[in-house]
Structures are given as structure tokens and as C-alpha cells.
Amino acid sequence: MSGSEPLLRVEGLEKYYTSESDFIDRLLGRQKDVKAVDGVSLEINEGETLGLVGESGCGKSTIGRSILQLREPTAGSVYFKGQDITTLSDSELRDLRKEMQIIFQNPRSSLNPRLTVNDIIGEALDIHGIEGGVSRDARIKELLERVGLNASHANRYPHEFSGGQLQRIGIARALAVDPDFIVCDEPVSALDVSVQAQILNLLEDLQDELGIAYLFIAHDLSVVEHIADEIAVMYLGKIAEIGTPEELFAPPQHPYTEALLSAIPEPDPLWEGDRILLEGSVPSPIDPPSGCKFHTRCPRVIPPSDYDFEQEEWRAVMSLRHRAREEDIAVETVDAEEATLMEALREELDLPPSLTDPDAEQVVQEALRSVADEEFADAEALLSETFETPCSTDEPVLRQTDAGRVACHLFDPAYEGGTDDGTTTGDGPAAESAASGDD
Amino acid sequence: MSSETSQRTTERGRIRVSGFDVDRVESREPLSSWEPDLQSEEGRGRLEYAWMRFKRNRLALFGAATIAFMVVVAVFSRPIQLPGSFPVLAGQTVQPFSLAPADPANQNVLTGYRSPTLENVLTWPPTGLYLFGADWAGRDILSRVMYGGRWSLSIGFIAVAMALLVGIPLGSVAGYYGGKVDELIMRLVDMLYAFPFIVLAIAVIAVLGRGYWEMILALVVVGWLPYARIIRGEILSVKENEYVTAAKALGSRDRSIIVRHILPNAMAPVIVQATLSIGTTVLVAAALGFIGLGLSPASAEWGVMLNVEQDAIARGRWWAGLFPGLAIFVFVMAINLVGDGVRDAFDPQGDQTDTDTGGLR
Amino acid sequence: MAMLEVEDLNVRFYTDDGVVRATNDLSYRIEAGERFGVVGESGAGKSVTSLALMRLIDDPGVIESGEIRFKGENILEMDEEEIRSLRGNEIAMIFQDAETALNPSYTVGEQISEAIRFHLGLDEAAARERAIETLESVGIPSAAERYSDYPHEFSGGMQQRVVIAIALSCDPDLIIADEPTTALDVTIEAQILELLEEVATEFDTAIQLITHDLGVVAEFCDRVMVMYAGHPVEMAPVEDVYYDPQHPYTVGLMSSIPRIGDDRDRLQTIPGRMPDLIEMPPGCNFHPRCPYAEESCTRMEPQLVDVETGEPADPINSDAQTAACLAHTGELTGDLDYEVTVRGEGDLPGPDDASGTSAGVSDR
């Protein structure tokens, strides 16, 4: 890593959307914000690739477009070649478009079906007055050949090409202005396997030849592992972990990365990896969980130190608390009388018949009784007050470890929590420590 | 397969396949004449595809032929002379032919009505004189119908063209920029829609008087509304397309984006609507003529002819009203066939059959 | 007699651009409870296969010839009523896009009950009970409450579970799953695959899984058929396909997928692209992209043959590994010189010996 200024530096980028609200809500100031990107910082050096991975709803596409100022960020700064581009005027930004470009996921919708290939690529040249006349045609021909297309097809329309060829045309368009940085927004997700490999190789070759830096956004970790120098994993608008592929994969530190990795099906029939199944689905970005956004599903969520929990029991209790908060337990449909109602509830919620810690067991029983009476707020309050865990109250910050950077309390020395088998050791949550430095 | 490899493993990526050498394929001579070609032949844009589909629609072609025929008849019915105010060529005869058997203005008030007769057709040389009979003033109806086509047809085409010129820019601006501009324009559209058209037409003509351009103005004042609405709606969806984002990412200016990327892709429904509107415009012009708000009573415009002969029809001189009415009917019918054909031709589904859905979509 | 036998199926689409030969002499079989994978890229004709099974091919598509025998009876000869009682009842289908497969105007429970009432003839209350049971079995929490929810109130993964529930509701013998997880996130995909596995084992349902994802196939399927340009080019038990592929296309696919943990610099690709099904290359359709192709490959279309004996394959009666390549009938002068290495275990025996080891399959 060179010590000089990185090509692209993003600090604290935020992008909030106002969710649909009617006039009354707006009047009363009750709109909810969809926090698509909630404070992301990253860096990309010249000629390198940063892979950005995450599942749907994590905000990765939004980041790509916000960095290019195609969507105006709500907060934060983007430094390109040292200059803060969020403050530029329209015409200055237009000039900058020669240096930063984007490739889209769906090649069929990112090319105007009414224009010929010539027009599509030529537009890039025309806008910036790059070439004219004969040299324009020559340049278009050169671009087409560089991306592996037959230059004689320049007068055809997009509907005549296959997906892979269309994606190449999109790449040629981005290359036309000779950029230093390209945001690749899931460029191979819509392509067939063999074509995927061709496009990935093409992108790598172009990077070697022209020294272009990429922000490579994808949902497929195996693709990203191959092409990226560094990988960032996102969850609900924040970065969970950043590191080189080696650091990230062997072994992954953040529990989400671990789960993500284990979920990837291996093309080997004899492979029998340990699959971590996360429960539920990604929470809505309108009402994200407090503290660490992953805590509602995290298999390694930190148990409170003053009680003696097995990791699985604790996970079940956390889920109980979360579902009580969401009022997502259908009590009427669990049919039984009082005593066995409790059993039925425990089964429904994946709680063992009895917890190891008798004090904890008492509290949980009381909470369950509230749930049985549909007093969900009481149950939730009881659980959150008795069982304190930093994961639900404090937001983790990206912290450097020996294997990359992780945003997880398990790696925060202030909490001294979590070994690999998930049992707690050491001090409890540093409730009084303001030194954990989260904002 | 040897039994060792039947063991399970938790290691990822341990299978490696090598030896599938791409260079061998690329550096050898093609083994057969098959060329990996593009999925269809020489560059055909959407417009060309649409035209081909249109050509295959017999009814639409018939409609188009009918209209072409009517236009030709209207143009060549009587000689056209440039008006005196024309700069250099004043008074020159631009179009010398005269298909109409008689001068449409030729009156013969003493004879008055004559019923349609074939006698002149059977003479030599045959003429169509009185083929459709004569009206109250003894004027040959066939000639008037032929000549009157000039008014009716041109009103239809010109009014729609001008309405497009007003509606498309306003609708585009509203759709693209959104916000207050959109609100403003759309409220204006709503207001004008709320007015009964006849009231508006009466207002315009009361202020400006009867006449050709005055009627066109009345038609345009409300005619632009549907186009504005349609194109705004289309733009709202088209502008979400990624190629628009791509153009912005390239640094394209708004004006350029609208003209180059958005409008061409949003125009199809507008074109269909416009084609069909030509028919309705002609009908409305005829209606205005019928109630006396149109052109002068002496003109050969079909609606006016109907107006003038209202009583005659009731009194048994059916030919005076039938033929102008028939002319209107045939024209509107033909334009509707064309409009349907245009709409079917632009059907975006028709471009390629998707075998993955098993055929029928 | 296997539960499903497809023999020499030919489907053609008569379009403006020409005749699309969607499937050509396709034959395979599926036993009860088996998990059969159909692998290929887009345009290979995999979806058409499943649509033909359910007789959902419509104008301009025509099933030209061939037989599809389900439990002994030829589906292609059944009348409309018989087919309708088959669809959803004994053969069910799961599509890729759960959202469009569900009718947004009806509650989820209603959609399941409808199928149950129609096929099993139960009354409303009984159908509702059974529907709730099915919802529970696919892992939807608070099933009884969610019975009356509309599709849009479910997340993508949950919607796919509902679709699976509808497919399962009448206890089908065969489920055709057409790219069921392609549109889902990988963690949700893992959940759905796990669910399908459970369901298949518990109810002993055969599953035909159509996908282009080689990881999913490896995990899920017992036997695999690889398709290219409407033809089956290789059919084998799953381990053989991954550890001992016998057709150059399969080899190409295996070498072009990015694998985690693999330390290659560049991905091996298959040059060119799949031909459209209207104008196909003469002889072997794959020859323009095959590194091992020779002149003889342009002259005759290779048939599926047993890779060990070179005899024409009989997919309906045998499970042997078969591939459609002239290398196995001895007509190729060169060799298929690719290698499949397994880290830590040295080389596997080469592919060009007819005397290669037998394709043993370990239990799952």
C-alpha cells in the first residue's frame, strides 16, 4: 500500500430516502427515513479493485451511485484525487465525468434501444468533445475491438446482441472517456456462467492495461474474491468487515461474513461445510435495529456477563425479545391450556424447556407469561432491562485487527467479549466506558 | 472413480479443472462455415420493425390506401392557384388538374335539387356530374364532396399537428422535471379538461369570429391535453430506465437527455393517440360546422354541408346529407384502421418470441 | 418403469425469425424420490423441457414428436381434463420469480386452499387446515395467522416458501423447480435449498431442478443432465459430473466458474457464445467453441453414448455416465486432454481411457 493519497476516499457517506408519506405525515414531520447508506467510509487506490458485497437492501448500489453524485448524498464527503466532489458545481461535475464512470448490471436496460452502438458510444465522445470526424469513427472502432467485439457491428441496435455482448458495449461506452475510476454495479450478475468469466477477464485485463480503479459491487462472494484486492462486506447500510480476500475468508471474523460465506453453495458434491442459517430476513432499513444492526440475527451475539447463558439459549432469548418488540408472536394460534401453553410457546420460539441459569430462567418465564397475555411491550421491556448486552445498545465501529477491519463488539477490547465457541469471558459490557468511541 | 475421492470434505475450492485452452480455439481456422453471427440480420431499428408489422396488417393498409386516395382526390379536385399575396409567383397555377366534374361553387338556383343520377356516367366522355345529385342551390354534390375534402382533411391533420407541438413540450417538461413545474402544468391540464369543449369552442369563435384558422385554434386549445398527459406518464416511467442514468453519468445535459433518450422511447403511445385523434378532430370540426360554428355556410366543408341541408334530409332529399356524411364516415373509419394498425405495429411484445415462457405470452 | 420417462422429445417454435429447435431428441428419466438436475446456460432449452412436461407449450411452440410417460401414461396423449388433474396435483411447478407466481389479489392461504379443494376435493374447512399444515411445514412462522396475509406482505424468501407450499399442498410425486433460488440472496437461498431437501426426503417427492448455478446442483442433485443448444450433452451421477466430466462443454463450464478458495489468477473461459437455436453450427453444435474439435466434428452430430463402452446411450434404462462427444465413439483422432485435479490428492485418472474406473456413487 502506498502512502500517497488514495484515488478515492469516502468519509461518512450517508444517503437517506424519505419513505412514502402522505401530506399529513409531512405536515406533522412524521416521515420515516429509509437509511439506505448509514455512514460508510472507504478508500480505493489507483489501479486497484475494492469489492463491495452484501445482500439486497444493504445499500451497495446506492453507494455506487452516491459516490458518482448521480444521487446526491445526504451527508458525508467523497474525495476524488484529493478534491471534495460533493461541493462541486454542475459544470465542474460534468467535467469530472470524464474520470469516473459506471457499468450497470442489466445490459439490456442500460442501453437505449433506439440508438445504434455507434450512437451509444459516440455520445460519450460527443459530450466531452473528445474526438470528431474521422478520428471519432476510428476511436469507436478501437474501443469495440478492445472489448472484444466485431467493429463492423457498430451500426446495429442493442436488441440484436446477446447479453454478454451488450455488457461489452456498456464497458466500451464507459471506456470512451478514458476514466480513472469505474463503478461496476453488479456487472456480471445477469450473465451466464461462461460469459461471466469472459467479462471478468476483460475487466481485469483492462485494469492491467489502463490502470483503472474499480469499485466492484456484487452479491456473489466467489466472483469478488477473484477480482478484488480488498473486499468490504455490507449489512443494512453499514460496513461490517473490510479486508483482503485472504484476510476475509480464512477465517472470516464478523459473524455476518461468516454466515454469508457458509451459505455459498460449493461446486463440489463432496463438500460438506458447516452451514450457518440465519433466522428471519434482513430487517427493513426504515426501522433498523438499535445498536449493532445485525444483532437481531447474529448467532454470536454477546450474552450479558451477569448471567450464565449458553450461546444458543441466548440467541433464542434475543429472538424472543425481538419478536416481542415486533409483536410478531401469534398467541391465539398456539392452542393449549396455560401450562402447556408455555411449553408450546417455548417450542414455537425455539427456547429450550429450561435455561441453565435459574435466575435467567425465572425472568424468561415471566416474560413468556406476559407474551401469553399478549403484553408484548412488558415482555420486551423486562427482557431488555434485565439482560443487557452491548450488541443492542451500542453501534460498533470499524476497528483494525490483525486480519483486516471489523465492526463488531466481539473484537472490541472494551467489551472483552466472545471467544470462538461463543461463551463470554471477562468483564461485562463497558457501560460506563465512553472510550469505546462510537458516535 | 477411486474410492478415496468419495470422502467428504469441508475444504473449498479443491477441484481444479485445467487444460481447456481458449487459445486453441481462437488461433485455429474456423472448422466450418458457420459464423457466430448476431441474432438477426442487418440493423433494423424499432421503427423498421414497426413498419414491417404495419405492412402486414391488411386492414391498416386498406385504411391507409383509402386516406391516400381521399387526399389525392382532394388535392386534384380543382386547380390550385397561389394567392395574390405570395411573393414572386402570385397567381401561378400550381395544380392544374380538375377531377371534379363541375365547379363546386356553380349555382343553379332555379333548378335547385336534383336527385342522383347515372345518366352522365353513361354518356361519352363520361362525367360524374350529378352522380351524387345537386344541393339546394343546384351545385353538384360530387364536386363539392371532392373539393370539401380539402377543408375537412386539412383541419384534421393540421389541428393534430399543432396540438402535438403544444402538448409534447409541455408534457415533457412536466414529466422530466417534476415538482412544481409538473404540478402547475398538470393543474392547467385538469382545468381545461373540466371545460365542456363546446363552451370553449363557442367562446373562441365568439371572440375571434368564424373561419378556418379560428376553428383550428379552438380545436388545438383542448386538443393538446391528451398528448401532454400521455407523454408525461410515459416519461415518468422511461426516465427511470438505466440508460437515462447512464447518459447522466456520461455528463449529458438535460435537454440532450430528453430529446435523445427519453422522447424517442416515450413517443409510441402518443403517435397512436395522435393518429386516432385525426379522426375525432374531423368529426368535431364537422360537428362545429353542423351547429353553425364552423366555416362559412357557403363552403364545401362536409360538416357545413350537413348543417345547411338539415331540413332537406327530413324532407326526403336524402342525397344532400348522405354523401357528405358518408365522406366523413369513410375518412374516420379509415383513420381508425390506420390508428389501430399503428398501435399494433408498435406493440413491444411482438419483437421476439421468448421460448423460455413456452410461447404464448 | 421409472416414474417419469422422457423419450426423444422434440419441441419447435415457429417464429418470424425461423424455426427455433428448442429441444432435440431429448431423453431422460427420473425415478421416484430422485433429485435430477438440468444444467445449462440461457438458451439451452432447459425451461422448455419443464414447460413441455406440463404441456404448457403454446403457439408458436409445438411439441413435434416424442413421448413423455408419467407413471406409464403418455402425457402428450392425454386430454385437457386429465392434464389439469395432473398439474398441481401429481406434478407441481415452482418458478423463479415467486412474486409473479402468486396472485396479488388473493390471500396466500386462499391460493393454497384453492389447489387443495380442486384436486383433493376437500371442503373449505378441511382444505384450510391442510393449507395451514403445509405452511407450517415450509417453515412459515405463525402459519395460521399468515394464512390470511397477501403475497406482498411477505419477503422474497417467504414468498418462495409460499410457492413451495402451494406446490406441496397436494402431495405431488414430482416437483419441477425452475431456477427457484436464482432471484434470492445467498443466505435465503441456503434456507430454501435446505427446505427443499427436507421436503424431498420427508415426502419422498422427486425433484427436477433446473438451474445454471453449479454450486446448487452439486449440493442438491443426485444425477445431472447438462444441456447445450437444446441437446443433452452429458448425463451422469453428480459426482462424476464434477470430478470426471466427459464432455468438453461440461469441462469448460467447470473451469470457468469462480471458486472460493481457488488460487488461480485468471478464469478459464469458454470462447464465443451459445448459438441461437435457429441456425446451429453443423455437426456438433459445440464445435466452434471446443478446443478439442476436429473436422469430423463438423460432419456428424454426436449421439449420447456411454463413455466407457461407446455404445449409444439408453438414458431410460441405464444410469451410466453418458456424453455426446465423438471422443467416446473413437472417431476423434486427438485426445481430450484436460485434467481434473483435486488439491491434496494428486491427479485423477485421465478421461480418455475406455478402461477407466467405474462410476461408483457414494450414498448421500
Write a compact overview of the structure shown.
Chain A is an alpha/beta fold and 439 residues long. Helices cover 35% and strands 16% of the residues of chain A. Mean pLDDT of chain A is 83; it is low at 417-439.
Secondary structure blueprint with pairings:
The complex is a heterotrimer of chains A (439), B (361) and C (364).
Chain A: E1 8-18, H1 23-27, E2 33-44, E3 49-53, H2 60-67, E4 75-80, E5 83-84, H3 90-96, E6 100-103, H4 117-127, H5 133-146, H6 163-175, E7 181-185, H7 193-210, E8 213-218, H8 221-227, E9 230-235, E10 238-243, H9 245-249, H10 255-263, H11 311-326, H12 338-348, H13 358-372, H14 376-386, H15 390-393, E11 399-401, E12 404-406
Chain B: E1 15-18, H1 22-27, H2 46-55, H3 58-76, E2 80-81, E3 93-95, H4 141-177, H5 179-194, H6 197-208, H7 212-238, H8 242-250, H9 254-290, H10 302-308, H11 310-314, H12 319-345
Antiparallel strand pairs in B: 2-3
Helix pairs in contact in B: 2-12, 3-4, 3-12, 4-5, 4-7, 4-9, 4-12, 5-7, 6-7, 7-9, 8-9, 9-10, 9-12, 10-12
Chain C: E1 4-15, E2 18-30, E3 35-39, H1 46-53, E4 61-70, E5 73-74, H2 80-86, E6 91-94, H3 98-101, H4 108-120, H5 124-137, H6 143-146, H7 156-168, E7 174-178, H8 186-203, E8 206-211, H9 214-220, E9 223-228, E10 231-237, H10 238-243, H11 248-256, H12 296-299, E11 305-306, E12 322-323, E13 339-342, E14 346-347
Helix pairs in contact in C: 4-5, 4-7, 5-7, 7-8
